[in-house]
Structures are given as C-alpha cells and as structure tokens.
Amino acid sequence: MPRKDLLDIASLDREEIEVLLDQAVPFKELFTRSVKKVPALKGKSVLMLFYEPSTRTHSSFEVAAKRLSADVTNFDVAQSSITKGESVRETVETLQSMRTDYIIVRHKSSGLPGTIARLTKASVVNAGDGAHAHPTQALLDAFTIKEKFPDPTGKKVLIVGDILHSRVARSTSTILKKLGLQVSYLGPGSLVPRLGPENIQRFTNYEEAMKWQPDVVYLLRVQMERQDVQFFPSIREYHKLYGVTDARLEEIRQRGLYIMHPGPVNRGVELCDAVLDYERSLINDQVENGIAVRMSVLYHLRPNA
Amino acid sequence: MTVFITNARIASETSKDLPTAHILIQDGVIKSVGPDQAAPADANVIDAKGRIAMPAMFDAHVHFREPGQEAKETIQSGSEAAINGGITGVVMMPNTSPAIDSGTVVAQVLEIAKKNARIPVYTSGCVTKGRHGKELAGIDGMRSHGVKMLTDDGDSTGDPAILFRAMQYASELGMFFASHCEVPELAGPRALNEGVMSYKLGIKGSPACAEEIIIDRDIRLAHATGAHIHIQHVSSKLGMETIAWWKARGDVKVTAEVSPHHLLFTDEHIGDYDTHYKMNPPLRTKADNEALLQGLIDGTFDLIATDHAPHTPFEKSQDFVAAPNGITGLDTALVSLYHHFIATGNFGWDLLIKRYSAEPRRMMGLDVPTITEGSAADLILFDPEAETTFTADFMKSKSRNTPFLDQTLKGRVDLVILGDEILLQR
Which of A116, A145, B224, B247 is the most exposed place for a label (fewest CB within 10 A)? Predict the structure, then answer.
C-alpha cells in the first residue's frame, strides 16, 4: 500500500528505507547537471507549515520541492492567526480548503504532525516535532553514511551531546539500527536518559566512548534554548568534557573517523573551529544529501484522493 | 413511597456472602430485609431476579467545574453522571473559577447543588486564596457552611510553612486536609510519567519522585501538627509504600485514595499521543498498577475516588502537552471496577463497598448506609450478567474524555434509590 505520510522512522521497515535511500541516488546525480529539475510533481502544491524557526530544513525542503517542479507556498505562521487558542483542526481545515497536496510541518509539540496527518488528505512530512522525530534528517544521515560505507552492517556510530532533547538522536539512531549499524550515546548524565533508549550503550565519559571504537562521531547541536532548567554548569565545561577539542580532533584524524553534525554548529561548544576543515567531516555532504532524500520522500508519498 | 425489591442478593462491606432476600423500603427508610415477607398492597414491586443490592457509592474526589467552566461540566450534569454510575454522593474539588476559597463561594456552590442536583453534593475548600499558595483562604467562613476538607487540589500547596500553619489552625476547627502531591519544578510540563514512554514520545516526563516527595512532606507536616491528612490519587508504588510506612507507625492520622485509572492503565496506553490517557499524577508502569491493587486490598488505600475531570473535546484534541490533564470517571467507575477486578476474582463486593461506599463517607463524617433494617434507603441494584456500552449517549457527564468511550464492559447499574426517590431505573 502506498504511504501517505512520513511521520517517524519507527513506522518504516528496512525495505522501505532502502527504497527511499536508493531513489535519492538519481536525484542527487541531477544536482551536477545544468538543469536540476524534473517534472515529477508538476502541478502539485507543497505547503510549508513551520511553527518553529528553521533556515536549513526549511530551505532544503523548498529546494527539494522546486526541483521536483512542485509549487511551494509558505504558510507564514508568525503572521497568521495561529495562537495557542486556535485548534489545529481549524488550521488544517483551512489548508484542506486550499487543496494542498503535501504539507511539510515543523512544530515544537511532539506528535503534532501525526494529528495533522489524521485530519487531512494531504501527505504530511514531519520536518521535526519537539523531541520526538525528524525522519528526513535520519534518512539523510543514513544516506551520507552509506555513501562512505556501502555495506554499513556492524559499523559503529557514536552520537554525542544532548540526547534527551534531541529528535535527531531518536530518529537517526532508529534508522541506523534498522540498517544494521550499532549506535551508542555519549553526553552528560543529565542529558543521556537511562530509561528509554533500547539496545543503545550509554557513555558519559569521552575516553570510555572512544574505546568502543566508533567509525563515525555524530555531534549534536547543544540546544541551550531547549533547556528549561540547567543541565550542565557551563559551555566551557561541556566543551572540555564532551566537545571535539583540537587534541581530540587529532585522535579522530589518526583513527580515520568521520564526523557528522546536523547543523548549525556551535563553534567552541560541541566542536572546535578546525573540525570544519577536517577532511573527513561530512557536514557539507549532509546538507547536499538532505535535498536528495527529501526529493525522494516527496516522490514516494501518495496523498489521498 | 413504598418499594419492595424481591429476590435481591444483598452485598455488604462486612461479608463476602450474598444472601438472597426481599427489601422493603418505606418513606426513605429500609423497613425490613429478609427472605420471608410479602409485598404490601401499595408497594412498587421490583423483581431483582438475583441482581445484587448494595449501598450506593460515594466519590470523594470530583471536579464539577461550576462556577466558571460550565462548558466542561455543571453540578447538574456531574451529579447525573454520578447517579448513572451508581453514586449518590460526591465531594467537589475547589479548583473552579473563581476557586472555592471563601464562605461566599461555598454558599453559592451549595445553593446551585441544592437546586440542580438530585444527590448530596459536598464541596472541599481551598487551603490558600485562589489556590495561589500565598495567603490562607477563608477557613472558618467555609467551615460555617459545612466544609470539612481543605485542599489546593490541582496543585500542591507549594509553601510548606503555609500548609503547616493551616494545619495548626484548621485542625482545631475539626477540618482535615487533602493533598495533590507534586513538586512542580520536577514535574516539567506535567504531561506523562518519566520513563521509556516519555523518551519515545519525546516529551519531558514527570518522575514518580516528584509525587513521592510531597506525599512524605505533607504526612510529616500532619505528624508535626496533629492534623488529619488525606493523600489523593496516589500513582506510584513508592508513594504508596511511603503511606504504608507512616500508617504502620500509627502516630499520624493519614488516609489515602487510589483512582481506577491508576489501577488499570500504564503510560504505554498513551500509544500515539492519546490524550485520554493524560492525567495528573500520570499513568506509570505495570509494577505500579499491581502494587496499588495490593494497597487497595490490604488497606493502605482507605478509599477509591475517580478524580472525575471533564474537559471539552476541543481541549482534549489539542497536542499532548497542551491538552489538559484528567479523564471523566463517574459514569464508568463502578462497572469498570467490577469488570476488571470483581468479575476476575481480584477482590469481592465487600471490599468494593468498603472502599467506595463506606470509607469515603466515614472520612467525611457522614452516616454509612447499609442494606439492613433501619438504614436510610441509599442503595443500588447491579446486574453482574448484563453489559454496559459506554457510548457518548450513555454518558451523562457533559464531557466524553474517557478511555472507556465506546467500550463494552461486564456489569450494569440498573437501579438507584435515594431516600424516597428512585433516581435511576433501567
């Protein structure tokens, strides 16, 4: 049965993940041509419903939709009447009346894209909801890793940082495990939950985590704005204990490890400046691959008639 | 009015036996109960056909939302939901708008109840003005209108010094305290239990210790002041064990209640962000369910109370964090407890009557009805062979926010008699 919505990674099986990733390959090849567009979604409308500010994910989806020849509309949440009091149902009914085919939604509330998906015939793509899921980030991460490791089975990815508040950690670890990789978490005790993550080793000490011998070090953005109370004493202390410092970068270089980051990076927090020039940094690959997998996702989904 | 109920099986809090007898009710009083008697000529004869007669239930924890939030519930609709569920008395919580924090508001509420409710409706009063935790509410004003229970339910009384002084003051006036237990700083957005599910759903959870700390704090305050403390809607095993520990000491007057949903559901029922499993304290784990059930049986919990908390469909259709806490309970409590615990043999009618009819009335200082000669007529007939489907139409509450919506469970409340009136007959 064709899939209407992409809300999380948990509901995808390995086969469907492989389809989404394989399909992204020819889309990526387009990017080197002079004409980067295909008419796959010509005449279809894509609506961007971003309740949270985002530059990267927003532009990535917008570029992806336009390269598929879809018409893209931004539903300007900041200037619309949407406040806490208005029901999601009313907003969705408005969108339904516009006969939108695809809705790309980002919201601070976990689970909200699912609510919207149940209320509309349009295909809904979750572009990040609270600390719940960010499935297209997970797909682009998996795509990026598979470019380096065509058979990634058994490869080890160490995800570092604020696991507790991170939808990226949740979705990316889920997809990597479905593809047969191993995942561990590293971060301050206050930000790496003891209960919840299944079959994921938990480290709170950088050196211990390195002994696990990861192939990829995946740094999460330290999101100060999500911390309703303080989870660690200072940025300086975080950088010292969990950041990729110059010395740690040297060790990473010697071991030949890849570094990934969902962006935007905090220099001097989760990484030092030199990481950005590190030859095995995949951060820019992630951005480019993001467009390709998002094209693949939009192409894959089928709105209800 | 004379009512003669034939062939009823009589249940009581003191015996597991259900002896068959006829019950004669005249002018609101049970005149006789026995196997060998004939119906008086003028009697309304109801053949129970082996259905179970028992004293009606009493719910010591309900939110009737009036004044101020009548879209959710009114005293009238709430009390009709109670009757629908075999309940003939309730204690309202004071988190209305305005809050029930003075003799004036109590008088207003009781006047509405007298006019619109067919059962006695009691109300608790706030510990602090507006439930803000800053200044003491009008305690003697409320007492003079019959208030016995003081609580800032919905929240804990944040400042322990205020609660300490309130206990010293109001205990001398014969009042007692009921505590909603929660450290707000630990509870986060107060959406669900902290654990596997909160991680999976990506919402900050409220750890059980947020509740357990205040359970212990408030019992300690009662211990120090000589007050009677009643712990509301306990959800965690360790919270229950804290109460048991204090009860075993025997030097503080502490009672406690458990709600049907904390016996029946866990945070896993939330599934895909189903707000009908969102309440505060939150649903926890299977181990908590099992421990709480033992606590209900062994007497750590004196009573069952629903925490009946109606909300409109719009409010509950919001996203999980924004949706308000609470579910309705009056329409469904008795049948759901029968279906899940009595029909399955976990406990008998005697325990249910003790915990949901007799003990809550004792806590409130009320007469306890029984099916015996001379007792006030305050009874129900329950059919254990029938079923109830909780459709939207079945529910008398204004709201439908219950996990039991459209479920069919074993058991049915068929008759409710209070005094000289038949309140419900199916």
Answer: B224
